[in-house]
Structures are given as structure tokens and as C-alpha cells.
Design a protein that fits this description.
The longest helix has 32 residues. The protein is mainly alpha-helical and 149 residues long. The chain is built from 6 helices and 2 strands; from the N terminus they run αααββααα.
Length: 149
């Protein structure tokens, strides 16, 4: 059985416009992992615990060596500091990234909930969407959430 192509509503954009969307997606993917780590570290610290490598690995569902490698990168990037026999701590720059990421996540999650998505699914889906959404789209989400004035 042959598959039918889904017809496009609009013509294909020019190459520069088209490539910009792909460039933004690649950039968002690179930043997503960093944002996930930094946001999780902030959450663990705010929950009254230290952000330990073992806890980060368990919550992200990855191996400890994977976490160790990323923590080294985050330290090099100036987002975290590490103390011997202690957990990981966010620098001011790391805290700023965590706050921005959390705000985007909360906006996307609230928007999905307004659309009738269940709380659990909205939380899970927001985890991926938050990294790929533009400032313009986030602003539209916020306006939608606020409702008519």
C-alpha cells in the first residue's frame, strides 16, 4: 500500500528562512541538557537537600559517570561550583539559568493545562517543549493563560 504525502498548506520557504528554524532547533537541543541539569540542581537545593551526583543521576535516569562529565562541563562554563565531599552548588550565572528555565517550564505547563491536558502529561510534555519555544510564543502563551482583559 503506497503512502500518500501530507499536502503542504503553504509554499516551501526560501533556504535562509528554512535553515533558521533548523538552526534554532539545534541550538535549543544543545542548551536543553544544560538547562535540565541546572534546573534540577536548583530544585534539589531548594528542597532542602544538597545536589549530589548520585541524586542527580537518579532523577535524570542516567549513570553517575554521565553526570560527572556534565558537572565538569557546567563548572567550566561557570554555572556550578563543586566542593570536596559536598554537593554541587549553582553560581549566580547558574541560578539565573535555572530561574529562566523554570519560568519557561511553568508557563508551558500552565498553557497546556489551560488546553485541558492532564497535570501529569502537561508536566512531562513541558519538560521538552520549554527548551524549544521562542520568547514570542511564550508571550502568547502567557496572554492566553491570563485570558481576556
Amino acid at each position: 500500500m503506497a503512502r500518500r504525502a501530507v499536502p503542504r498548506k503553504d509554499p516551501l520557504p526560501d533556504a535562509d528562512t528554512h535553515s533558521e528554524g533548523f538552526r534554532q532547533t539545534r541550538e535549543a537541543r544543545r542548551g536543553a541538557l544544560i538547562e535540565d541539569y541546572v534546573e534540577l540542581i536548583a530544585d534539589l537545593i531548594e528542597d532542602g537537600n544538597e545536589a549530589r551526583q548520585v541524586d542527580i543521576a537518579a532523577r535524570l535516569g542516567v549513570a553517575q559517570p554521565t553526570v560527572a562529565k556534565m558537572l565538569a562541563r557546567l563548572a567550566t562554563d561557570g554555572l556550578v561550583s563543586r566542593k570536596p565531599y559536598r554537593g554541587v552548588f549553582l553560581t549566580d550565572a547558574g541560578q539565573a539559568v535555572a530561574l529562566e528555565s523554570r519560568a519557561r517550564h511553568q508557563t508551558v505547563e500552565a498553557f497546556l493545562r489551560c488546553l485541558g491536558v492532564s497535570p501529569e502529561t502537561a508536566r512531562i510534555d513541558a519538560e521538552g517543549i520549554e527548551h524549544h519555544v521562542s520568547a514570542e510564543t511564550l508571550d502568547a502563551f502567557r496572554k492566553f493563560i491570563a485570558g481576556p482583559r
